[in-house]
User: Which sequence fits this backbone?
């Protein structure tokens, strides 16, 4: 299946995407699409013969729980609606807690890395098989970028991906920007990963921008693609001709001509690498089979992921073996992203609160982890402000009360809500 050159479709750049020359296909975030109808822009693209691939972000196939049937059904419905040749997701966990760890469910609001251990691989493979059985088209999984490393990992990234493909037959979506991110943040050599993974299983490739700050690479998808990322793309192209390559941009969208320039740079990198003679290589042997392990991989994985996520979003003590400085960087990044997404799904909140929005939200988020998505998070933040008598400006407080009433209840939260908040806090052990 040849896809060609594509770009991530986002509502903010829908007109630009339609006008860009040489676009063979687009990728749309699955959760941003309705299950029964498409935005007009995607309908027009499909009528022109442009392939649309849904890209999921919320399944959490690397998590300890089995995939949620409702989320799988939603992804399947979008695949049917789009008539797509495949769907994609991530090798990541996005929530933890629940019955496996006898604790409240916590949401990360972000893709977090799974430990490259045999336990985590067993869980991931079973989850992938469940997903494959539930979807009407093939599934491809993406390697993610990470700020943190798990202690005691037993496999390299390339070995982990190779084992995953060997056991499940799943395709791979290789993000070369994420390989560069893990090179900067975790010291992992992209060449080694590319040598170890089965490049023939690649369905397509992501290319995206980021920025380095204080020695940490942030995979922002809001900055131009850098030369080091294009160099990793060249390394991949010297090993295989990928069926498709796609430019991702999720924020701070530039003018259409800048997007066109980045696509030209991507095409140029592919062409220059294709012109070079391929380097001779022999794929390393598969990772050695692990020693027999006791049952309970899901429980062990669930406990470890819950402990990590609780540290990142609820301020509990860091699990042994983690780099505490990096955990702090990741925790602040999660809170910052949470504030930004809430501001997008509920733009009235920063409008009502003005310049004090971000500081107030970060203070709220420090000990109130997300448990039910961003829209519920926005309501919870508003409730918190109102029960604590804020904002101080009376007119702003009246506006916030009206906003909350329209979405949650006819009466503003008072003492009863305080009691609910107190009970929730006690249950979470804070």
Assistant:
């Amino acid at each position: 299946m040849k896809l060609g050159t594509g770009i991530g479709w986002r509502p903010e750049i829908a007109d630009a995407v339609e006008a860009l020359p040489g676009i063979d296909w687009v990728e749309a975030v699955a959760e941003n699409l309705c299950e029964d109808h498409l935005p007009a822009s995607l309908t027009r693209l499909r009528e022109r013969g442009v392939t649309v691939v849904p890209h999921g972000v919320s399944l959490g196939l690397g998590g300890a729980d089995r995939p949620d049937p409702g989320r799988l059904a939603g992804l399947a419905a979008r695949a049917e609606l789009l008539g797509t040749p495949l769907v994609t997701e991530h090798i990541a966990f996005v929530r933890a807690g629940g019955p496996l760890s006898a604790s409240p469910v916590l949401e990360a609001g972000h893709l977090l890395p799974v430990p490259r251990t045999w336990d985590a691989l067993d869980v991931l493979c079973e989850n992938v098989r469940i997903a494959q059985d539930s979807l009407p088209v093939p599934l491809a999984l993406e390697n993610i970028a990470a700020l943190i490393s798990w202690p005691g990992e037993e496999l390299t990234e390339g070995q982990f991906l190779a084992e995953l493909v060997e056991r499940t037959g799943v395709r791979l979506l290789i993000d070369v920007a994420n390989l560069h991110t893990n090179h900067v943040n975790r010291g992992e050599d992209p060449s080694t990963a590319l040598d170890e993974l089965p490049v023939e299983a690649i369905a397509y490739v992501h290319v995206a921008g980021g920025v380095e700050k204080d020695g940490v690479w942030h995979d922002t998808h809001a900055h131009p693609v850098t030369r080091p990322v294009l160099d990793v793309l060249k390394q991949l192209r010297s090993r295989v001709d990928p069926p498709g390559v796609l430019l991702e941009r999720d924020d701070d969208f530039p003018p259409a001509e800048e997007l066109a320039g980045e696509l030209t740079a991507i095409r140029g990198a592919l062409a220059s690498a294709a012109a070079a003679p391929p380097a001779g290589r022999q794929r390393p042997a598969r990772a050695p089979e692990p020693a027999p392990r006791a049952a309970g991989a899901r429980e062990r994985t669930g406990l470890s992921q819950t402990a990590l996520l609780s540290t990142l979003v609820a301020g509990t003590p860091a699990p042994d073996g983690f780099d505490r400085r990096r955990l702090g960087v990741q925790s602040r990044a999660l809170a910052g992203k949470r504030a930004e997404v809430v501001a997008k799904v509920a733009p009235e909140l920063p409008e009502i609160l003005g310049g004090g929005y971000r500081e107030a939200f970060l203070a709220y988020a420090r000990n109130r982890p997300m448990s039910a998505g961003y829209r519920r998070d926005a309501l919870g933040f508003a409730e918190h402000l109102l029960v604590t008598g804020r904002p101080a400006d009376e007119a702003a407080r009246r506006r916030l009360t009206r906003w909350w009433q329209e979405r949650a209840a006819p009466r503003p939260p008072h003492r009863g809500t305080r009691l609910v908040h107190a009970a929730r806090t006690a249950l979470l052990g804070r």
